[in-house]
From TrEMBL:
Organism: Streptomyces cheonanensis
Cross-referenced InterPro entries: AB_hydrolase_fold, Hydrolase_4
Annotated region (Disordered), positions in chain: 236-262
Keyword vocabulary terms for this entry: Hydrolase
Keyword Hydrolase recorded: yes
Pfam families per the UniProt record, alphabetical: Hydrolase_4
GO MF annotation list: hydrolase activity
Residue ranges annotated for the Serine aminopeptidase S33 domain, each copy included: 88-155
The organism's place on the tree of life at top rank: Bacteria
Descriptive protein name: Alpha/beta hydrolase
Amino acid sequence: MRREAAMTAGETGTAGEAGEEYRRLALDAPPPGPVRGAVLLLPGGRADGHSRPARFGPTVLRMLPFRSAIRSATAGHAVVTGIVRYRHRGWNGRHEDPLRDTEAALDRLAGRLGPVPVVLVGHSMGGRAALRAAGHPAVTGVVALAPWCPPQDPVPALPDVRTVIVHAERDRVTDPAASAALAARARRAGTPVCRLVLAGGDHAMLRQAGTWHRTTAAVTAGLLGTAPLPPPVAHALTEGPDSPSGLAIALPRRATPRPPRA
């Protein structure tokens, strides 16, 4: 049984309210001159949990290599990166705490930088928050990594928000079939969607970590317009609403180099 099944619990729980001071946005110092775009990284979490996440807990640390890869891919293009700090560890059912924190962070970002395009990059629960926050006026792109995709989540028409899902084919925490179903629903609704599938990966993104990082950085830079999108992704994002093409693009698996023989 997938652990994702436990992530549907807690719909009637009481989230409680933490102070607004806990809705933090850890943002890089903006470069001199106009900012061209921004990337917000959304860490994973739990189905339920009202404790305050550790500032540098495992879910945040997991996103740091992605931030470094994105910085390298967008270097010289005045792109700012930031990490959303949640008030609570969990989604917490109807309270949807990470979604609220992401929306608050986007509002705060707009207040600091003005109307710059924003790409959301979220993992697991953060992927769910990214997909749900995609309708915010600042968001122009989403990269959802191994996202948690409950079938009851709404999928609005977002024709101006290009969305890329990346999932390991044997993820045992969040269901790849669920992200495939969501991608198809989103495309039918009118959202440009691409879905990439990684063989040999895992939910924590530790196996084939370099592929996760390079792919995310290349796609994010492409969505911001600081570099061309990878051709298969660019083509998939132009597919019509009823096309299945581009919703299960296999990412090449790089073999681990063997040490030289003595």
